Amino acid sequence: MFLIQSVIRNHKVKIQSVLKSHTVKMTIINQIAKYHKVSHVIFDMDGLLLETEQIYEKIIRDLAASYGKPYPWEVRMRILGTTERRTCEIAVAELGLPCTVDEFQKQFSQSCLDNLGNCNLMNGAERIVRHFYNNNVPFCLATSSSQESVVVKTANYPALFKLFHHKVCGSTDPDVKQGKPAPDIFLVACQRFPGNIKPEDCLVFEDAPNGCRAAKLAGMQVVMVPDSHVTEKQKEDATVVLKNLLHFKPEEFGLPPFADINEE
Ligand SMILES: [Mg+2]
């Protein structure tokens, strides 16, 4: 009798173990099936890896105030993710500033160089970049900023930013004809990876609605880590929306999972 009970108990444990293992496998498979598998990653920079958007916001707000004008959130959302030239065009037109775009851009560029050198990394930025590097997932940068501006903003993090395979700087790259929300920058970033990499092989990380639209138009999936002011409608181009980069689950896109535990 004791022997029979023991056999039944062992059998139950084995069945539970198999079921548990099967559940884990099915969960992973379902997660992978959730999104199209990718092999390459493209990062936006401002507001995604670097905490620069608040600095930009202050720069434009202060410049607008010097002309006696406010800087409403609706205009900021239109500016977010655009090239420096487009940022200045929108600011002058939408804020009704009594100056030319060239005059505004001169002040804007100088203020950027003066203020952007001491920006912080966004939450989880270093972890995710090093994770892809350590796991041989090719990744690059696709920023609307100029090359000069990228040098200033990344000056405090040389070891991290040298890990990128290449950097596309939308404001100064001759191959980027139109800034975000046009798809040009992401298509150029994709083409500069070695091999015949297709847009659908690339996963974009973005914070701005303009960037998400650009990625979608490029035929890429996009992970959005939005500013708290971004509306639900402005998130509609995102494949997935995260609170911060620490919440990303690489295995959902067929990429190697993090070895550590996701944090809040
Ligand atoms: Mg951005």
From TrEMBL:
It holds the Pfam family Hydrolase. InterPro entries: HAD-like_sf, HAD-SF_hydro_IA, HAD_sf, PGP-like_dom2. GO terms for molecular function: phosphatase activity. Gene3D superfamilies: HAD superfamily/HAD-like, Putative phosphatase, domain 2. SUPFAM superfamilies: HAD-like. This is Pseudouridine-5'-phosphatase.
